[in-house]
Amino acid sequence: MITGWRGAALAGNIEALYASIQEDGDVLKRVDEVEFVDTPLHIAAAAGHTDFVMEMMNLKPSFAKKLNRRGFSSLHLALQNGHKETVLRLLEINKDLVRVKGKEGYTPLHYVTREGNLDLLAKFLEDCPECIFDVTIHNQTAFHIAVENNRLAALRVLSKMLKKTDCCQDVVNRKDKDGHTALHRAAAKNYPQMLKLLLACKADKNVTNQAGLTALDVARGQVNNRESINILGVCSFAGVSTLYKLWQLIVKFLAKASIEIFRDMDSISSEDRNASLVILGLLLTATYQAILSPPGGVWQGQVSETRLSPPSGAPTSTSTPTHSKKSRNMVGTSIMDPGEFLVFYLTICAVFIVAFFLTLGLLKPFPRGFKTALQCAKELSAYKR
């Protein structure tokens, strides 16, 4: 004979549960008041009694987020014991159960990632996409866990979902308690395929850990590391990474601005169109000429030592350098200071490009085609994210 709520939960006997409630109407209330306890829901979930679990969720849904004395929720226990049907039914009632943190901050998502349960991993991410942001007490994401447990297939599932979010880089570049990103971990374990997946998710190769090492530095300390080094070694300079990010922002801004500008061009009058074309033509001519002939011109012919020396009769100093600039006074290079020339060149090029496309936009056959192309570029950029 089954007695008490505990026996009813072990047997999955709903009638016995209600018999216990009839004897003491506050029995479940007292269980709920205990901070850490194996509730009837925990016991039934661990045993795979799905119908009993559903009945308990109806009576006491608060039990679903309670942890037992070992630090596990009912969903954790159902997963650990392989009761897939119970897991799925729990999710039907409350999808946020995927985010309940158990022992060491492990969520059910972290558990299925560690075990490589791809079906449930995909289901969790589909039902509760926000769970991908959860971290353990060691500040590890599901990406760290997939790498540490060599779960390449699980990492693929995670990567596919992450690309659909707007916080791709925030998650993939998250550092654990030692300052390691998932990319550092993959480099340390010499997993080339995982490195490729993480880089496809916009993992930053220039992020350093607490020791000041990048993922490439970590990879160099491993054996049989040639493939990993080749993967990480491409454009792994901070300057290149920064310029690439800046270029992406510029392209995104120009695409958005151009769409708005071309939209306004549809309603412009013929007189305004002709006047604008004249002004843009002058801008194109001036900027093109400035690009070909920068201020001060360029160095011509061989630059001799005497040309760099002061004229005869002029006061001299023993410390006057005659060779210090010789290395950069090459034929065809600008006489301007390199830094000043770069600022000038980029500004002029930007004006030239804008004027060029505005000119094309003002010509009747072009606006619609440009708007379509820009819209396609915008959609392609969103797809890559």
From TrEMBL:
<feature type="compositionally biased region" description="Low complexity">
    <location>
        <begin position="309"/>
        <end position="322"/>
    </location>
</feature>
<keyword id="KW-0812">Transmembrane</keyword>
<dbReference type="InterPro" id="IPR036770">
    <property type="entry name" value="Ankyrin_rpt-contain_sf"/>
</dbReference>
<feature type="transmembrane region" description="Helical">
    <location>
        <begin position="342"/>
        <end position="363"/>
    </location>
</feature>
<protein>
    <submittedName>
        <fullName>Ankyrin repeat-containing protein, putative</fullName>
    </submittedName>
</protein>
<keyword id="KW-0040">ANK repeat</keyword>
<feature type="repeat" description="ANK">
    <location>
        <begin position="104"/>
        <end position="125"/>
    </location>
</feature>
<dbReference type="InterPro" id="IPR002110">
    <property type="entry name" value="Ankyrin_rpt"/>
</dbReference>
<feature type="region of interest" description="Disordered">
    <location>
        <begin position="303"/>
        <end position="329"/>
    </location>
</feature>
<keyword id="KW-0472">Membrane</keyword>
<keyword id="KW-1133">Transmembrane helix</keyword>
<dbReference type="Pfam" id="PF13857">
    <property type="entry name" value="Ank_5"/>
</dbReference>
<feature type="repeat" description="ANK">
    <location>
        <begin position="178"/>
        <end position="210"/>
    </location>
</feature>
<dbReference type="Pfam" id="PF12796">
    <property type="entry name" value="Ank_2"/>
</dbReference>
<feature type="repeat" description="ANK">
    <location>
        <begin position="70"/>
        <end position="97"/>
    </location>
</feature>
